[in-house]
Amino acid sequence: QTKTGIALLYDEVSENAYDIRLKLTKEVLTIQKQDVVCVSGSDHSANHRTVTLRRQPVGGLGLSIKGGAEHKVPVVISKIFKDQAAEQTGMLFIGDAIIQVNGINVESATHEEVVHLLRNAGDEVTITVQYLREAPSFLKLPLGSPGPSSDHSSGTSSPLFDSGLHLNGNSTNTAPSSPSSPIANEPKYEKRWLDSLSVPLSMARISRYKTGTDKLRSNAFEVLALDGVSTGILQFYTAQESADWLRAMSTNISDLTLQNMKMANKCCSPSDQVIHMGWVNERLEGSDSSQLYKFKFLALKGSSFYIFSTPPVSTLDWVRAEKIYNLCEVLFKIHKLWLADDCWLQANLYLGIHQDFDLEDQRPYCFSVMVGHGKSHYFNVELGSELAVWEKSFQRAIFLEVQRTGSKTYMCSWQGDSLCFTVDFALGFTCFDSKTKNVLWRFKFSQLKGSSDDGKTRVKLLFQNLDTKQIETKELEFQDLTAVLHCIHSFIAAKVASVDPVFIDSQSIARKYMYSN
């Protein structure tokens, strides 16, 4: 199914916007610009057309013009009147820039100079025109056919006025002259939407933010292809249109990512499947950074969480990841959602692990992935639906890895003794002597009643003795305490999910709010 519509292409350098037509298919976004093409007759270049107009007693030249050098735009034809001289030639169109009048170059002439020339040019006026493909939207030229009828250009007066040349001007000949009409073998021209740029959507990314800032573009976004080719800034007339197009493009990108995942999974063993992957923005540390956020490509595959600067395209690319973490040892946390009433929701999805983030940034849909040694990565996505998918995918990938692994053992110590601490999906927690392998203590997951740590290496685990109902405190010291705490969290969550999947679903912060939004 193909979606089409009219939008504007915003040029940040000139700060002008141009009318374009968008064509979205499953795999490609095409940007079209209007141009005049030669459809029959001698194969002249449609770039420059020279047309002779005969001024008529009623209606004059039959056209109006806008623009001029004082507005940094050429003088363009802004209206063509039905059944009058300009229309009868079949060779002039709204949006044509006037280059010459009776051999005089007017490319850098002011509006008034061109009006004066045309009004005083006699009964036969020869003009050379070239269609202005990127007519700034401030000229408010009607798009006209072809393409969907659009009222975006009507009803608002332009900051530049129309000068009507459908008046007589200084005609010396008062007898009606024969009307301008196309000669039989003259070339025929038509105004058409022509493909200007095609952006493949596979592994493409969308950005609604002004580069390097937290400023959200108003009703606008940019699409960047895998090879870095950009659509430029696509601007829409209403928030609703912008949201519709954003959703449609995101859906198509997601569908293609799913296809890519299926292809990749054909080459991978069942234990090494891609669960989810896609683009996010990662917030960079340090406010002096020239760019607050940078695009990153995340993947959940097999036992690992990958962070890439560019997507993995071949099997060999997986070793190119900037960072690789074991899924049992990471913690996913949602930070921000933008609710329907525009208030912020701060959501903590975990207990007992505290890490304060500077939440000054203005982006909604943020999550962090906390990793070993107290470090973390802070990400943002463009849509609430994407946040919900990441939440669900992390959960699923972690649970699968826990069930596959079955148990994880960490070296630790207490009071000079070298010990091993095992988290086991079936048995719970076990601590044994690393040399003799003698079991020192063992507790089920359900016996863990609380924990506290010093934020560095030491943790106190509080277990309830099943016989005495008394709380027993076990203290241990780990090299990477954060990884161990995350691992305990992952195993307990996976255990709960295996017993009560409905409870885990009910804890989904993102989905609860996104779909009501």
Automatic annotation (TrEMBL):
The keyword Ubl conjugation does not apply. The keyword Protein biosynthesis does not apply. Residues 50-133 form the PDZ domain. SUPFAM superfamilies: PDZ domain-like (SSF50156), PH domain-like (SSF50729). Its main location: cytoplasm. InterPro entries: PDZ, PDZ_sf, PH-like_dom_sf, Syntrophin, Syntrophin_4th. Residues 143-160 have a biased composition (Low complexity). Belongs to the syntrophin family. This is SNTG2 protein. The gene is Sntg2.
